[in-house]
Design goal:
By secondary structure, the protein is of the alpha+beta class. The chain contains five helices and nine strands. Helices cover 30% and strands 30% of the residues. A hairpin with a 2-residue loop joins strand 4 and strand 5. The longest helix has 13 residues.
Length: 159
């Protein structure tokens, strides 16, 4: 994690960056889980992400549907990013207070899932056939801290 700050109209702005570099020779898939991932197995995390019902659908069903022309994921329920070998993905948070950096760090540690594609293939045999539309296509994303905080404030209060 790295962060920098600057001012807009004499008000501080903090940009908190997480660079996820894949230095391995295999693909990794990442996503956010809406519950704490500590002490959970890869199998549990994979099953929850790909096979839990979210409204009217299950992500695995969407991933195998090739009639989908576009797909806009929700960060905490069905966002998935594939990071190829020797590439990187950057997640940036825009915040207004230096104290937010600690909350963002804790959030990333407790909710960001990073799993090797080969492990996913053990539990989802046809994951190699997933529609590429389910994967976030850009190499970076920006999350507004206020939106993240409104989603996770109950878990922050518990600490």
């Amino acid at each position: 994690m790295e962060y920098t700050n600057y001012f807009i109209d004499n008000k501080p702005v903090y940009l908190i960056n997480y660079k996820l570099r894949n230095v391995a020779d295999e693909d990794y898939w990442i996503w956010f889980d809406n519950t704490n991932i500590e002490n959970r197995t890869s199998k549990e995390l994979i099953r929850k992400h790909f096979f839990s019902r979210d409204g009217d659908f299950i992500l695995c069903q969407i991933a195998l549907d090739f009639n989908i022309e576009s797909y806009s994921p929700d960060l905490l329920s069905n966002f998935t990013k594939e990071i190829k070998p020797k590439s990187q993905f950057m997640i940036s948070f825009y915040a207004k207070d230096v104290a937010d950096t600690t909350i963002v760090r804790d959030y990333m540690k407790e909710h960001l899932v990073i799993i090797e594609k080969q492990k996913i293939l053990r539990y989802i045999k046809n994951a190699d056939s997933f529609n590429s539309k389910i994967f976030f296509s850009l190499d970076n994303m920006l999350i507004l801290y206020e939106q993240l905080y409104s989603l996770v404030k109950s878990s922050i209060k518990d600490k």
